[in-house]
Design a protein that fits this description.
The chain is an all-alpha fold. The protein has helices at 2-29, 40-69, 72-95, 101-127. The protein is built from 4 helices and no strands.
Length: 129
């Protein structure tokens, strides 16, 4: 489970980096808070940050449940895939909104496996014996 905690920490650090990049992007574009629009670069970086937060609500508990009921090393590996997917999502989205799909797909696939794997693993444990 320690490896799962390490990967969860990486997810949180990655999110923190995205939050900081929103601030950096605000500085570069000259758009001050509370404004959320006005430059496509800021709007895309905000979407990266917000979408990542939305995904974290799914992936973090799913990773813990998967680790408890299926496999901690596999859960950590899938969490690592999520981190890579989010980084690619950010890079692609910042280049152009249309280029975000690969990263979203990679992170999304890892999340889907974690969610359904945790459901199956916990159901099997609940109905065993």
């Amino acid at each position: 489970m320690a490896l799962v905690a390490v990967v969860m920490s990486l997810i949180l650090i990655e999110y923190f980096v995205f939050v900081m990049l929103v601030g950096v992007t605000r500085g570069k574009t000259g758009i001050q808070a509370p404004a959320m629009t006005g430059d496509p670069k800021l709007e895309r970086m905000l979407r990266v940050q917000l979408n990542t937060l939305e995904q974290m609500v799914l992936v973090i508990p799913a990773m813990w449940l998967f680790a408890m009921y299926v496999s901690a090393p596999v859960a950590a590996g899938l969490g690592g895939v999520f981190v890579i997917g989010r980084a690619l999502y950010c890079k692609g989205y910042m280049a152009a909104a249309a280029k975000r799909s690969l990263g979203f797909g990679i992170g999304g696939l890892a999340t889907i496996i974690l969610v359904f794997g945790s459901l199956i693993g916990s159901a099997m444990a609940a109905f065993a014996g």
